[in-house]
Design brief:
By secondary structure, the protein is α/β, with parallel strands linked by helices. It has 13 helices and ten strands. It has one domain: Aldolase class I (TIM Barrel, Alpha-Beta Barrel). The structure holds iron/sulfur cluster (2 copies).
Length: 388
């Protein structure tokens, strides 16, 4: 007897593709409200390819966004990150999107300088605010401009009681002078600290590597000696992934936890879509277009030339920054590989070994229920890259 043939329609009645380009049923819409910014940070990643300031406010309509969501994301849980440039420079767009999609989750990624101008109605809807800061006052002001550190801390305190969501410091760890005390202070001021090693050449001299490792050792020591959860996201994420390995893969189908290969869409102000916000100047990374209403699977994927398959960290790191791996191993930029990518991978592996020294499984088994739950389910994992 022959098996009845299953009929797979090419298009559903809504004209949506039968197989979604989004992997899984969650998707982060990272809406760039503008590419303009009111600061001039020295290491800004949008400076690469001259992206910063190259587009003003959003030029597609919300009706076009509606049609795009209806066609491609109707079956997904959508969460939005407002991004830029400095997204609060286009507050009108943020308000319109929040009003149009009241059931979505929202996050704001901001430099924090205009945070105290946000109205209650916007603050109340934010699940998380990611505030860019570079460490302590001297280092932050050195990269961002005089007075920025104090202004951001003041603004953070001003909005804390007016919002129910989390406040997360986003540290681009660039300077070799960034100390344990500075990061520890941020952990006291914010709900969470997420740090990421800067993708900057000239940052990873042997002496600078040793200084960073010394700080990492102290952060990990404090994580395992604290009575409460020490809210440093990369350490939390690595401990989670080592203790509960399925959590390292389930939302990302085993790929990078920054989501660029699976379920994040960076929508530029002109409606063009790219998987990684640092690669919007690379034509082959174009993934879709809100105005033309098309979307394809992310072109930023693991590649056989990348070294992760034989790396000791693969099970819990999952490819960290795919932009870095792509530039180093697919595009073959040997200088970038040796000056940026390999040192960062060495720091990631070092972080994993420091965690292992403290027996994370035994620590988790003894941790109070509340600590176990936050380590397992922290919503901020969905909003950051998790790995450093
Ligand atoms: S440390 Fe580097 S090589 Fe190892 S899994 Fe992570 S990104 Fe890949
Ligand atoms: S971590 Fe992911 S999102 Fe961030 S720069 Fe790298 S590839 Fe892009």
């Amino acid at each position: 007897m022959s098996t009845p043939m299953t009929y797979y329609p090419l298009f559903s009645p809504s004209d949506a593709p039968a197989v979604s380009p989004i992997v899984g049923k969650r998707v982060e819409l990272q809406l760039l409200t503008t590419l303009k910014c009111n600061l001039k940070c020295t290491y800004c990643s949008l400076g690469v390819g001259d992206m910063v300031g190259s587009q003003g406010k959003v030029s597609y309509t919300l009706d076009a966004l509606d049609a795009f969501i209806a066609k491609h994301l109707a079956e997904h849980e959508v969460y939005v990150t407002f991004y830029g440039g400095e997204p609060t420079l286009n507050l009108g767009f943020i308000r319109e999107v929040m009003a149009r999609y009241p059931a979505f989750r929202f996050q704001l990624q901001t430099n924090g300088t205009l945070l105290d101008d946000l109205p209650e109605s916007v603050l109340a809807k934010l699940s998380n605010i990611l505030l860019s800061i570079d460490g302590g006052e001297t280092i932050t002001d050195g990269f961002r401009g005089r007075g920025v550190y104090r202004q951001v801390i003041k603004n953070t305190q001003a909005v804390r009681d007016r919002m129910a969501g989390a406040l997360t410091a986003r540290v681009t760890w660039s300077s070799e002078e960034t100390s344990f005390e500075e990061l520890d202070e941020l952990a006291n001021t914010f709900d969470y600290v997420y740090f990421q090693f800067v993708a900057g050449e000239g940052t990873y001299s042997p002496a600078a590597m040793e200084k960073k490792k010394a700080v990492i050792t102290r952060l990990v020591d404090k994580f395992f000696s604290s009575d409460v959860l020490y809210p440093i996201i990369p350490i939390m994420g690595i401990v989670r992934n080592k203790v509960l390995p399925s959590r390292a893969t389930e939302l990302y189908h085993g790929k990078t936890q920054c989501r660029v290969s699976t379920h994040i869409l960076n929508v530029m102000p002109d409606g063009k879509i790219f998987p990684c916000p640092d690669m919007m100047y690379v034509p082959e990374m174009l993934q879709g277009d809100v105005l033309a209403n098309w979307l394809k699977p992310s072109p930023l994927q693991p590649h056989a030339s990348m070294p992760c398959g034989t790396c000791e960290a693969q099970a819990w790191c999952r490819g960290n920054c795919l932009k870095n791996l792509y530039l180093a191993y697919v595009k073959g930029d040997d200088h970038y590989r040796s000056k940026v990518v390999e040192p960062i991978c060495e720091l990631v592996r070092f972080l994993g070994r420091e965690v292992d020294r403290h027996d994370p499984h035994a620590w988790y088994a003894k941790a109070p229920l509340g600590v176990q739950k936050t380590l397992r389910d922290c919503e901020v994992y969905e909003y950051v890259e998790i790995m450093p």
